[in-house]
Amino acid sequence: MTDDQLAPVTAWWATAITRIQPGEIAFRGRPVQDLIGTTGFVDTIWLLVTGGDLAPARRHLLEATLVASVDHGPQAPSIASARMAATCGVGINSAMANGINVLGDTHGGAGQQCVAMLGRMVDAHREGAGNWDDLATDEIAQHRARGAFVPGFGHRFHPVDPRRDPLLALVEQAAASGDVVGDHLRAGLAIERALASRGVPMNIDGISAIVYGELGVEPELARGLFVLARSVGILAHAWEESRSGRRIKGPLPPPLLADYTGPAVPER
Fold this sequence. Notes:
Distance between the termini: 76 Å
EC number: 2.3.3.16
InterPro entries: Citrate_synth-like_lrg_a-sub, Citrate_synth-like_sm_a-sub, Citrate_synthase, Citrate_synthase_sf
Keywords: Lyase, Transferase
Family: Belongs to the citrate synthase family.
Helix content: 40-55%
Structural class: mainly alpha
Pfam family, one: Citrate_synt
């Protein structure tokens, strides 16, 4: 085939991410041998996903956020799902996929939703549509009007999320030093102030959304980065459970059974 005939074929999976040739691997134009031993994992994630580089303070923010998101214990549905799968005879990759696939709009999606909410507030503020507190009040009112939770605030388990304060301090420091603009931080704190009287503080999804917003991460990509972080915990739990020797471990320990609420069963 001529080069003209081959062009549409080789363009089928065209990518700006990785160049592969015999004896060559390059990520975004950088030979892999130049990255090995010189570039950290967080920088490599950012390079592949965005094509850019992270300044040290911004790298520190991203890494801290990923660390904060790695796990939330075996009661988290994604972790529990992976652990159950690991006792059913599947491989570690299938157990991990099982857990990752549970991360949806309800369990795992609040960060994405919060990034979008804060982004709307930041855009409105930059357009002169109101001050931070008024914009926060309006967002909360809109969520309540449709019976929705305000994403990134409140936690069913933690009265105060232990991950909030250390991440918030890092963002505040980065904003004070000019490493990030700080508008997503101001928007998030305005939402928290508006919810303070109801005892609904910021949670990990809220502070993570602030970080991702400050780094310019799109809402859906923010969920992807959360999934990437949480996959570490999913791997750890799936591996631990696979070593336990337990088989077909269900959601309730034996001899407990789920309550039955259907029609009466005839006595025999």
